[in-house]
Design brief:
Length: 135
């Protein structure tokens, strides 16, 4: 693992949350991106070498919609950057962590991502992410 890449926060209203986090962090978000496959709309704030990712559900079937229903707004996941996501997935699986996807999938912010089940990580949903080089 290279560094804490971002903290993902589930919000009910992305526009309201963007305004609030701009006031909190003293800067504007630098991008908004919809990930259609995950039924989420995200926005990103740079904070030093890490980021805050705000996530709003775009469909009732979205994992974020279910999370909000069960737990309300708040920290949804933490993401660590890795150099080789396939190698890290194999290492963590061998260590007994349960991976939520068998192969890396395309996430927001030009990343390959994989999630680890919170029940095998002290209740924390952990995301591994690897940057995809710009073509
Ligand atoms: Co994330």
């Amino acid at each position: 693992m290279i560094r804490l890449e971002h903290i993902g926060i589930a919000v009910r209203d992305l526009e309201d949350a963007n305004t609030l986090f701009a006031r909190l962090l003293g800067r504007e978000h630098y991008k908004v991106e919809e990930v259609a496959s995950e039924h989420v709309k995200t926005s990103f704030f740079q904070v030093g070498e890490s980021k805050v990712e705000l996530l709003e559900a775009t469909h009732p079937d979205s994992a974020i919609a279910k999370y909000l229903e069960k737990k309300g707004e708040g920290i949804h996941h933490i993401a660590f950057e890795v150099a080789d996501i396939h190698a890290e997935m194999a290492r963590l699986q061998a260590e007994g962590f349960q991976l939520l996807n068998a192969a890396p999938k395309r996430g927001a912010d030009n990343k390959l991502v994989c999630f680890i089940h919170p029940k095998t990580a002290n209740g924390v949903l952990v995301e591994l992410c690897q940057s995809i080089p710009n073509e």
